[in-house]
Structures are given as structure tokens and as C-alpha cells.
What we know:
Elements: H1 4-14, E1 18-23, H2 29-35, E2 47-52, E3 58-62, E4 75-79, H3 82-93, E5 98-101, H4 117-124, E6 129-132, H5 134-140
Parallel strand pairs: 1-5, 3-4, 5-6
Antiparallel strand pairs: 1-2, 2-3
Amino acid sequence: MFDLKAIQSALGDLGYDAWLLYDFRGSNPLVRRVLGLDEKAINSRRFFYLIPANGTPRKLLHRIETFVLDALPGDRVVYLRWEELEKGIKELMSPFKRVAMEYSPKNAIPYVSHVDAGTIELVKSTGVEVVSSGDLITVFEATRVAAQ
């Protein structure tokens, strides 16, 4: 179950400015579970969901699939062309220095590495440091609750 306050608290505890969650055609099942999205739904366009340590989340969605994150809080930015996508990423990243993503340096933890190198490069090109969301995944996806 998605818990914005708990995620933001964890981001602060870890010293991360934000968590950038990304998916393309179901390539990142961790995102779907953390956000409580339908795991069987396969969308045809990329989406990004930025959770800052403080403040309102933001969504970056393709114009064809603006509905994908409707169940989640946050402001929405829509892109169509790749230039608009790059501009949107730059705007999402502009206030931040350290952003977590589903990435593991040298793929040391393959369970975490679901974001392709090109997307990591795109995000890094904005000047942010991309860090592994492994510790966040451990808390918000890989920990069992009493019911389990």
C-alpha cells in the first residue's frame, strides 16, 4: 500500500532529496508494487513519479497515457515528443542533488536494477547524483507485514 508520508520520512532519514520512480512497458515491477498500481497493466509509454523528501509529488506522463498515475497524489506534467520528455526530466530534477532510482552500481543487486542505462544517463545529465533505491525497496517492497 502506497504511504507517501512514510516514504518521505525514509528519504529524509537516508539523506536523499527524492525518489524518482520510472516504468516503461512493465520493465520495473518494483514501481508498480510500491505505488500500488495494477501489476498486470502494461502501458506503452514511459512514466515518471517523483516523490520529494518534502513537498508534493510530481508526475511526468506521455500525452497518450495521462491516466496512468491518476490514483496517486501530485502535480502532472505531460510530454509528447522526446524534447518535451528531456525538458520535463530537467524540470523534475532542478531542485535536487541526490535522487534514488531502481539502480544498483555495477548491477551488484540485480533485483533492484530495473532502470535502463540510458534513462539513468538522462537523469544524470541534469546534474543530479543517482543513488540506488535499494534501501527504500527493502522497506517499502521487500518487507513482509503481519498479514503475509
